[in-house]
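Question: what's this shape?

___
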Amino acid sequence: MAHFRLGEVLIKEGLITEKQLNNAIEFQKKEKGRIGEILIKLGFITEENMISALGSQLNIPYYSSENAELLKPQPDQKLDKLIPSDFATKNIVLPLSKNMNSITCAVNDPLDLMMIDNLKRLTSCEINLVIATKAAIQKAINNFYFANKKEDLAGTSMLDQAVESSYAQKSIDQMITSTKEKHEATELSLDKLIEKAGEAPVIKLVDLIIRQAIDERASDIHIEPFDNKINLRYRIDGHLYEIPPPAPHLHLPIVSRIKILSKLDIAEKRLPQDGAIVAKLEDRTVDLRISTIPTVWGEKVVMRILDKAAVPLELSQLGFDAKQIDTIRKSLSSPYGLFYVTGPTGSGKSTTLYAAVSETKDPSKNILTVEDPVEYKLDGINQVAIKPDIGLTFAAALRAFLRQDPDIIMVGETRDIETASICVRAALTGHFVLSTLHTNDAASAITRLIDIGIPNYLLTPSLTMILAQRLARRLCSKCKEPYEPSAEQHGGIKFKSDLIYRSKGCDLCKNTGYKGRIVVSEVLCIDDEIKSILSRNGSYTEIKDCARKNGMLTIFEAGVKLVEEGITSFEEVCRVSVDQ
């Protein structure tokens, strides 16, 4: 980590250009301050994106604002004594947990090596880092340090003191006995483990967990072990919800049952594993992708549910308006070119890509896809899953595809210059190529491709369309609540409708106020005007302004339109938009 600088990381991730970094450095000389704060101040990048990029580049866990509950220090570890409040406040660092000679801390700037070195000296511990935004850490610091102080001022009860004293007097022998019993309870022989995993109650329990998740329209199942408990959570419409969990002693049999079904190594608990299950329901087949990781309390399992029947693979059913669909279909009818879908993780890019490929399906066309992994199996389309461990990368598959007489090629993700270069070359030599990128909006996808090394003179003739999107939750049709909007209430936004709707909550939507999701998108057609700007190396702003002048709605504007139609709420549009 020591050899990275923030500016270099952001350029490498394609979030800023070298020119923007130089502008920020010049600004820093005059105004002082950290380079990251200056880049945010100048509007070159958002804090969330900067922190997320750092986490990805440096392989450090990133706790987003949606996961703020993770920024809660472990109780009863005296972490506030280990790292005093003044050090935490000054350096924006929050201790989260301590395990033997190692402490996990949330920081805002993982590249501040001097601060991390001071932290090591202060705690006499090895430091494990997670990163989060400054605001999220500051809020957690206030909750942790200053809430505790208020409680201290109020005084502790006699009962609290007595309980604390009794724990302090617990003998070493008792602790050893307790630990030994616990160890024996969790470590079963392989034969017994397989036997328990095959018992009827465990089989029924795993079936029930999966079936209930499918019925609830969940996209993921999380089974998480902790001290004396299991957490069971379903991700529904992009949000995680806690479900009443099974008893703690069932964790090992449940994990073993899932491993047996997904053909994983039941004896291997030290390393992450990936597998798959095909679940057959009454009238359909559902694919499940299985991932296990070893945690301090045991193996955590995540099951990704890929239910083709529940996901509409048609553009008309995803939420695009009629004008956007016409524009997309016109681009897809082109005999060659480069079509990109862009957005953050979890924004529905793969689903849109599948829907787009389905639109182009024709017996007279040879369609090949390379994916990581193949999420939905499409009839009549040749699909390849990458296997980097044997050299089958996106780039290697693409090179092979060009010798397979393709008409249409779908690339799951453009991750590097090699893949991008082959995509552009394929588009220029008479093939139609579809792929995805991770950028905030459509216009920034162009600057990302240029920044990673694709020259303008190749990009200009190859690009046909860039589609940026997010997923917004639909308001529950049963309980959505109408109200009269005011400009003051909504940041000056004036709606065309006299009434718009907000979430309320009922039995149908499980009191969330939302049920289902809809695409919110901006569709950037690469017309002659955009190509002219590209050919003379025009800026991101010029590209976006030109597209808007020609009728492109930004993600926020498209979201406002959905609010006016009563499909989603203004709060939900603000949550998923980047250009409020």
User: Anything to note?
Assistant: Residues 150-187 have pLDDT under 50 and may be disordered. The chain is about 40% helix and 20% strand. The first strand starts at residue 93 and ends at 99. Residues 134-154 form the longest helix (21 residues).
